[in-house]
């Protein structure tokens, strides 16, 4: 910006040339050229002095002063027993902006603002900088640490000088000097890497041991009950062992509204066994899949009436063929595997490119690490941030094994027992659970990819499968008591694709463009209204030729239920949930419109999480209102989920870096390691969030185990 300063001194450290064994010490001739643009003669003084404190020592702080006209650099030699060191530089003043560079012992030394980036590794700095250096990268086992003060501050987040709007040749009588302190400390040894890896894997393998113990205890209890001859129709984990007589007549008290259950529900549901195949005869007929995939041809005439009853029971919404519905939900599993492969491969390729650029150029301003706790391994600059994501993958795989065990036990029970035992408990469809396990594993993979080089451009990789996890959990919670009318895999994943597309647009346009936030807020509010109408009527109305029919129907509900009748809505519980949900979502939309948060990906994730928590709280409250029980295992999982999430969020909000700021400003937030001298606060967040997600999944898996002995025409829908 051509802003100029008055200064009276220029100093340069001459590149030292040590004699080699082949050449004896000799005198060297130095030429110094001085040029001036002054219109008259100027008197100069040339002073050559010997630097007494040129070599930095390990674990000893060194203080000095630098300015744009007086850059400084010093020599450091690796001690014999040190393979890696961390260079920590601090200053009390934010500005002037400076650059810290580590360069090999080569002359000339690049110690000016316009060439400091030509060699070695460098960082911009305000109050703090840290660079980890390994002995293997310097064959001579020594290097220069270079300090350059920049003539302008905009590279570090300072304001653009006002001189660009006025007189660009104005002279500023400012002192751009900076007091710095540099300390070089040994970094962690190889043994710490090994300890950290053992800790990471053993911590989560303990969950496997705990699961084996719980499964063994459950097996012993089942065997004891079986030997005592008092086993109930289904004793947890989908194990059906004996059946009670079931009649086609409707139980007393189950007919709410003006519907005869014996003709509309019971008669069709309990059709003769000859009309239905055996429980274990799942077929893969493409003809059957096409014709019966998501239809109820035998009751098409009355399902609209059944689903609009004031009081619904699970038997009303689990009337479709179990085999067809199970295949429908298995599509969730196969689709998410396909999505994961096609999404992860280009992400891995991109972050490898990022890391390669960092290693080749030496520009450490590209990636936003916590440089005070970034331990390199191989080509990776922050191996600890990647290793800490192993918990998501290990616990995701463990959850798949737990679901597989339940699935196998349920299949065995259905192959052994009468077809009518299908009318007990929540319908066992495991496709969504398998998809959740894959999503948890992929969250670990993509979070690790993001932490290869965390920055503004690739943060969406860390959040994409978080959206899918939150969405799948909501779908699973809804599917539990609405198995026949839950969204198909194609609709669900298409919705997730729209969300991820909006997240990408938010990264590009969400910073300052008001038009984007107006459009997004409208989409958010209208989408909430449309989904609310679908949920309120259990999906039993047509949108008409245009989608405005959804909102016309919503207006009709408000008129008939509130204005015309002046009484409580027909579906009170659903209405309360939807009113609260819409208020929450509209609040998010208004907040985004007013404040336009720069971290758009986290903003969308907050919307998903709040909706999930709201629905889960509603579900548990309604479950307790319906006099249903919480068994010890789901109760333990709920408590563990709350405790672990609280601890995880504490570490999550310990901000160690921020790509919303400049790299130099982000480094002001860097902190040392807190666990084993290897992991920082964000790594602990990774560990705890993986455990919290695992317990959250177990809550959804076990929440309704108390209903395994209850007939479906006694289980309310909410």
Please, could you describe this protein's structure?
The protein has 718 residues and is α+β, with helices and mostly antiparallel strands. Among the domains are: 1-158 and 173-187, Jelly Rolls (Sandwich), CATH 2.60.120; 322-499 and 627-714, no CATH class. The chain is built from 17 helices and ten strands. The chain has helices spanning 190-228, 261-269, 286-292, 303-306, 322-361, 383-387, 390-416, 431-452, 459-481, 489-509, 514-536, 548-564, 572-595, 600-625, 632-652, 663-667, 681-702; strands at residues 4-5, 62-66, 72-77, 84-90, 98-103, 121-125, 128-134, 142-149, 171-172, 178-186. The chain has a four-stranded antiparallel β-sheet, with no helix packed on it. The longest helix is centred in the middle third of the chain and has 40 residues, at 322-361. It is elongated, with a radius of gyration of 33 Å. Residues 162-173, 236-301 and 541-546 have low confidence and may be disordered.
Summarize the SSE layout with pairings.
Elements: E1 4-5, E2 62-66, E3 72-77, E4 84-90, E5 98-103, E6 121-125, E7 128-134, E8 142-149, E9 171-172, E10 178-186, H1 190-228, H2 261-269, H3 286-292, H4 303-306, H5 322-361, H6 383-387, H7 390-416, H8 431-452, H9 459-481, H10 489-509, H11 514-536, H12 548-564, H13 572-595, H14 600-625, H15 632-652, H16 663-667, H17 681-702
Parallel strand pairs: 1-9
Antiparallel strand pairs: 2-10, 3-8, 4-7, 4-10, 5-6, 5-8
């Amino acid at each position: 910006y051509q802003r100029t300063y008055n200064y009276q001194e220029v100093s340069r450290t001459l590149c030292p040339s040590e004699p080699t064994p082949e050449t004896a010490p000799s005198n060297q001739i130095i030429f110094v050229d001085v040029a001036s643009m002054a219109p008259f003669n100027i008197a100069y003084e040339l002073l050559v002095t010997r630097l007494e404190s040129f070599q930095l020592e390990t674990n000893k702080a060194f203080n000095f002063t630098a300015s744009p006209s007086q850059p400084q650099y010093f020599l450091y030699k690796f001690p014999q027993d040190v393979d890696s060191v961390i260079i920590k530089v601090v200053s009390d003043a934010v500005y002037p902006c400076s650059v810290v560079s580590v360069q090999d012992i080569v002359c000339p030394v690049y110690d000016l603002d316009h060439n400091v980036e030509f060699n070695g590794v460098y960082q911009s700095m305000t109050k703090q900088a840290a660079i980890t250096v390994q002995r293997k990268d310097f064959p001579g086992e020594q290097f220069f640490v270079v300090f350059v003060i920049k003539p302008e501050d905009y590279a570090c987040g300072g304001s653009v000088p006002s001189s660009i709007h006025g007189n660009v040749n104005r002279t500023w009588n400012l002192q751009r000097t900076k007091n710095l302190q540099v300390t070089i400390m040994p970094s962690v040894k190889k043994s710490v890497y090994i300890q950290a890896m053992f800790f990471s894997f053993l911590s989560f393998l303990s969950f496997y041991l705990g699961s084996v113990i719980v499964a063994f205890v459950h097996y012993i209890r089942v065997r004891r009950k079986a030997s005592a001859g008092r086993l109930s129709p289904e004793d947890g984990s989908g194990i059906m062992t004996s059946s009670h007589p079931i009649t086609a007549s409707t139980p007393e008290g189950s007919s709410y509204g003006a519907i005869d259950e014996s003709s509309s529900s019971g008669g069709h549901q309990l059709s003769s066994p000859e009309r239905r195949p055996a429980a274990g005869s799942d077929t893969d007929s493409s003809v059957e899949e096409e014709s019966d995939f998501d239809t109820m041809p035998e009751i098409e005439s009355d399902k609209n009436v059944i689903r609009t009853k004031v009081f619904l029971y699970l038997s009303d919404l689990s009337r479709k063929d179990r085999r067809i519905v199970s295949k429908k939900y298995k599509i969730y599993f196969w689709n998410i595997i396909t999505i994961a492969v096609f999404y992860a491969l280009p992400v891995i390729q991109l972050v490898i490119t990022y890391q390669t650029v960092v290693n080749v150029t030496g520009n450490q301003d590209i990636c936003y690490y916590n440089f005070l706790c970034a331990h390199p391994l191989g080509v990776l600059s922050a191996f600890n941030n990647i290793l800490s994501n192993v918990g998501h993958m290990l616990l995701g795989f463990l959850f798949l094994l737990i679901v597989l065990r339940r699935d196998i036990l349920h299949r065995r029970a259905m192959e052994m027992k009468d077809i009518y035992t299908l009318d007990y408990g929540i319908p066992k469809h495991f496709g969504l659970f398998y998809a959740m396990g894959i999503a948890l594993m992929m969250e670990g993979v993509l979070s690790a990819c993001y932490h290869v080089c965390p920055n503004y451009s690739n943060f969406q990789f860390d959040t994409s499968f978080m959206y899918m996890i939150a969405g799948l959990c909501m779908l699973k919670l809804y599917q539990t008591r609405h198995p026949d009318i839950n969204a198909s895999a194609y609709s669900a994943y298409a919705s997730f694709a729209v969300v991820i597309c909006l997240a990408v647009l938010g990264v590009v346009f969400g910073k300052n463009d008001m038009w984007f936030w107006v459009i997004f807020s409208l989409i958010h509010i209208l989408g909430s209204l449309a989904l609310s109408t679908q949920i309120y009527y259990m999906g039993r109305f047509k949108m008409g030729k245009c989608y405005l029919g959804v909102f016309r129907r919503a207006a009709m509900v408000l008129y008939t239920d509130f204005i015309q009748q002046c009484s409580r809505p027909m579906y009170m519980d659903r209405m309360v949930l939807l009113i609260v949900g819409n208020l929450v979502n509209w609040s998010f939309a208004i907040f985004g419109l007013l404040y336009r948060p720069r971290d758009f990906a986290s903003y969308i994730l907050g919307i998903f999480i709040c909706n999930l928590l709201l629905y889960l709280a509603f579900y548990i409250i309604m479950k307790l209102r319906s006099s249903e029980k919480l068994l010890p295992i789901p109760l333990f999982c709920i408590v563990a989920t709350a405790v672990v999430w609280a601890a995880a969020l504490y570490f999550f909000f310990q901000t160690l870096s921020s790509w919303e700021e400049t790299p130099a400003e982000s480094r002001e937030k860097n902190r040392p390691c807190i666990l084993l001298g290897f992991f920082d606060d964000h790594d602990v967040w990774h560990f705890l969030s993986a455990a919290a997600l695992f317990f959250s999944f177990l809550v959804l898996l076990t929440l309704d185990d108390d209903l395994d002995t209850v007939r479906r025409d006694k289980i309310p829908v909410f």
